[in-house]
C-alpha cells in the first residue's frame, strides 16, 4: 500500500473522490413510483406519449362548431370520449380536463355564455384558445429529465403523468460510521480530560443529506485505541456498507491506528491528505470487496469542523458518483467582508448567506474544533491557494448538503 502523504489540491481531491464513486456505482434497478423518492434516475425519463395525449379542455363550458347559436347535442366529462361535432351550429357541454371533440372550433366558458328558452347556447370565445393541444408540454420520446436526476415528489409526478409504473434508478449507498477515541464521552458533560463526542450524533445526518442510507445500528464507538480493535471494527462495518466513515486517527500519532488498519486490509488510497484548511488530514481509501465491487473508507479528522469539511470534500462527491448524480457544484457569491488566504492551501471559511443568496458573511467561532460557527453557516467561502478575498470580491461558495432530494 503506497503511503504518499503529499497533500492533494482540494479541487483535485473532490474530482478524484467523484470519479472513484462513478467507477463503483451499482447496477440500475426497477422500483415502483412510490418507492423512488430520494433515488437517482439511472436512465433519462422520456415521454411515453404526447403530453397532453389529446386536446384537453382548460375550462368548464361548451365546445362549439360553426356560428352561434348552438344546439346542445351532448356532454363530455373528464375521462370520457366525445363524439365528433359533425354539424355547424352544434355544441356539447364540456368539463375541465375533458377531451375536446374532433370538429370543435372553439370553447366558451360557462360563465360567459347564455342559453335561451329554446335551449340554444350563445357566447363569444376568447381570443386565446381555451384548450391544451397534444404535445403542448412534451412530445412522445422527448427527454424530460436526464439520467442522474435526483428523484423527488415532483419527478415522481412527471413520471406518473407520462404513464410510468416503475423507474430505473441507482441503488442508494449504505454507509456506516465508526467513532475512534478513548477520550470521548457518549453522554454527560465534558470534563476530567474527556470530551463529548459530537460527530457520532451528527455525521449520519450529513450522510443522509448526501443520499446514503445509514441505520442507527451502523454507528459504533468509541472504538478503543488499539490496532486490533480498529481492525475488528472496520472489518465488521465494511461487511454491511458501501462506505464506512471513521472519525479521528488520520494522522500518525501514538494512538492513530487507521493507516495500519488500511494496510492490513489491502486498501488503496484514493486521496491521502488534502491541501485545505481546516481539515487537511483527511483520506479516502478503496478496499476490495468480496463480490468484486470495492468498498470505501473515508477517514475524517477528529476535530468536528475539520470532519465536516472532510465529509463535504470527499464523501459528498463520492456518494454523488456512487448514485450516478452530477458532482456537487460550487456557486459564486460576493463576500461581505475580507477572508484571508492560507498560503499554499485552499481556505474554506464558514459563511452565512443573505436572504437572496448572493452575498456571504463570514461567521465567528470557526476553530477546527468548534461547531458554533458551523451551526450558524450555510456553507464555505472558497479561497484558492496563494490568494485572499477582499470585501466585494466574487468567490466560489461550497454549500452545506441539503436534505436529500431538496431543491436549492
From TrEMBL:
Pathway: Cofactor biosynthesis; molybdopterin biosynthesis
The family this protein is said to belong to: Belongs to the MoeA family.
Required co-factors: Mg(2+)
Function: Catalyzes the insertion of molybdate into adenylated molybdopterin with the concomitant release of AMP.
CDD domains: MoeA (cd00887)
Organism of origin: Paractinoplanes globisporus
EC number(s) reported in the record: 2.10.1.1
Keywords from the named record: Magnesium, Metal-binding, Molybdenum, Molybdenum cofactor biosynthesis, Transferase
Record protein name field: Molybdopterin molybdenumtransferase
MoaB/Mog domain segment(s): 176-321
Pfam families noted in UniProt: MoCF_biosynth (PF00994), MoeA_C (PF03454), MoeA_N (PF03453)
Catalyses which reaction(s): adenylyl-molybdopterin + molybdate = Mo-molybdopterin + AMP + H(+)
Amino acid at each position: 500500500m503506497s503511503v504518499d502523504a503529499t497533500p492533494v489540491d482540494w479541487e483535485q481531491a473532490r474530482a478524484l473522490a467523484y470519479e472513484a464513486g462513478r467507477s463503483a456505482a451499482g447496477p440500475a434497478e426497477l422500483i415502483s413510483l412510490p418507492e423512488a423518492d430520494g433515488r437517482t434516475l439511472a436512465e433519462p425519463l422520456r415521454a411515453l406519449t404526447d403530453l397532453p395525449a389529446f386536446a384537453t379542455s382548460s375550462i368548464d363550458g361548451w365546445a362549439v362548431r360553426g356560428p352561434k347559436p348552438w344546439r346542445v347535442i351532448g356532454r363530455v366529462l373528464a375521462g370520457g370520449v366525445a363524439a365528433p361535432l359533425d354539424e355547424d351550429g352544434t355544441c356539447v357541454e364540456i368539463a375541465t380536463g375533458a377531451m375536446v371533440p374532433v370538429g370543435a372550433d372553439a370553447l366558451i366558458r360557462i360563465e360567459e355564455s347564455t342559453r335561451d328558452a329554446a335551449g340554444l347556447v350563445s357566447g363569444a370565445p376568447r381570443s386565446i384558445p381555451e384548450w391544451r393541444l397534444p404535445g403542448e408540454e412534451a412530445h412522445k420520446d422527448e427527454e424530460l429529465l436526464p439520467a442522474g436526476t435526483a428523484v423527488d415528489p415532483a419527478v415522481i409526478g412527471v413520471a406518473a403523468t407520462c404513464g410510468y409504473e416503475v423507474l430505473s434508478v441507482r441503488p442508494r449507498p449504505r454507509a456506516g460510521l465508526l467513532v475512534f477515541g478513548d477520550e470521548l464521552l457518549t453522554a454527560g458533560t465534558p470534563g476530567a480530560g474527556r470530551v463529548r463526542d459530537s460527530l457520532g450524533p451528527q455525521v449520519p445526518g450529513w450522510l443522509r443529506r448526501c443520499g446514503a442510507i445509514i441505520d442507527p445500528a451502523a454507528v459504533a464507538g468509541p472504538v478503543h485505541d488499539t490496532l486490533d480493535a480498529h481492525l475488528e471494527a472496520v472489518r465488521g462495518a465494511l461487511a454491511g456498507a458501501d462506505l464506512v466513515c471513521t472519525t479521528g486517527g488520520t494522522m500518525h500519532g501514538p494512538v492513530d491506528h487507521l493507516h495500519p488498519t488500511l494496510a492490513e486490509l489491502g486498501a488503496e488510497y484514493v486521496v491521502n491528505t488534502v491541501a485545505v484548511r481546516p481539515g487537511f488530514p483527511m483520506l479516502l481509501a478503496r478496499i476490495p470487496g468480496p463480490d468484486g465491487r470495492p468498498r470505501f473508507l473515508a477517514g475524517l479528522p477528529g476535530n468536528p469542523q475539520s470532519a465536516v469539511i472532510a465529509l463535504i470534500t470527499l464523501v459528498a462527491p463520492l456518494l454523488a458518483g456512487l448514485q450516478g448524480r452530477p458532482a456537487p457544484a460550487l456557486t459564486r457569491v460576493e463576500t461581505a467582508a475580507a477572508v484571508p488566504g492560507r498560503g499554499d492551501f485552499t481556505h474554506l471559511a464558514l459563511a452565512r448567506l443573505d436572504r437572496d443568496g448572493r452575498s456571504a458573511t463570514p461567521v465567528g467561532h470557526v476553530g477546527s474544533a468548534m461547531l458554533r460557527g458551523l451551526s450558524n453557516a450555510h456553507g464555505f467561502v472558497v479561497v484558492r491557494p496563494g490568494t485572499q478575498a477582499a470585501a466585494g470580491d466574487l468567490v466560489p461558495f461550497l454549500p452545506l448538503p441539503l436534505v436529500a432530494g431538496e431543491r436549492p
